Amino acid sequence: xxxxxxxxxxxxxxxxxxxxxxxxxxxxxxxxxxxxxxxxxxxxxxxxxxxxxxxxxxxxxxxxxxxxxxxxxxxxxxxxxxxxxxxxxxxxxxxxxxxxxxxxxxxxxxxxxxxxxxxxxxxxxxxxxxxxxxxxxxxxxxxxxxxxxxxxxxxxxxxxxxxxxxxxxxxxxxxxxxxxxxxxxxxxxxxxxxxxxxxxxxxxxxxxxxxxxxxxxxxxxxxxxxxxxxxxxxxxxxxxxxxxxxxxxxxxxxxxxxxxxxxxxxxxxxxxxxxxxxxxxxxxxxxxxxxxxxxxxxxxxxxxxx
Length: 306
Ligand code: GLN
Known about the structure:
Blueprint: E1 22-23, H1 24-37, H2 43-55, H3 59-64, E2 69-70, H4 72-86, H5 91-95, E3 97-100, E4 103-106, H6 116-136, E5 139-144, H7 150-158, E6 162-168, H8 171-183, E7 190-194, E8 205-210, H9 225-228, H10 244-256, E9 257-266, H11 272-281, E10 284-291, E11 297-304
Parallel strand pairs: 5-6, 5-8, 6-7, 8-9
Antiparallel strand pairs: 1-2, 3-4, 9-11, 10-11
Glutamine (GLN) binds at residues 112, 115, 117, 211-215, 227, 236.
GO molecular function: nucleic acid binding; peptide chain release factor N(5)-glutamine methyltransferase activity
Binding site for S-adenosyl-L-methionine: 145-149, 168, 197, 211
Enzyme class: transferase
């Protein structure tokens, strides 16, 4: 059943002139109410972003255009989006795109939704890339398991002299990343390769970067439905220990890292010690450990140990 009728039900006598006129502020209020009743954690924030996204309004216009009358087509579009959100589909999956580091990224079924946590990884990588460029005039990196391409594309848009390779095992993800590279104007500096970890990769790089799947398999069932039911499992599942991807990356990194290069990784909040051990045993040294905005360990950077 529709959560809010666009037009009075046929059983009620109703002429065109008596059609219910809903304003933007009323629509927002109804949406918040529907989300709160559905038990969502952040009904106001979700309503603000979903309604503005569906209607193509800025967040400021959501406030300044409150008296605007919403037409039937807009009502229908918002009603459908609201139903999807009530089924726990994340707001930005419904909208089909998400902002990351100030850039827009299209999402698809094959891609993880980029998270603000991953912006910390990008922030930690940038000074190294920029230093490398100032020292040598160039920098070349590989982003393993690129998904939407958020990491690689953001790095390229921030470092105009850098070039990147991005890999993914999923063809669908690579198509999404290709679209995102075009939208963000870096397609000429990004090469996309299909394969698992280093499978499709030749040569050495100044930086190896990745936000690999790192959730312990047994913990996936307990994730919030927004993640468990909508992010692709292949982008989340890190195997029995959560460390499978780190082991694969550590095993191949020595053959693909240039002298003086770094390996920069996103990690799960509880994985600092375990991932550090995997890389130490493979001959690397922990150089930087950074936390996310929630104070959780989130990024590790390793260097060669000699
Ligand atoms: N950060 C994601 C989450 O916990 C997981 C992403 C990943 O496994 N790389 O929802």
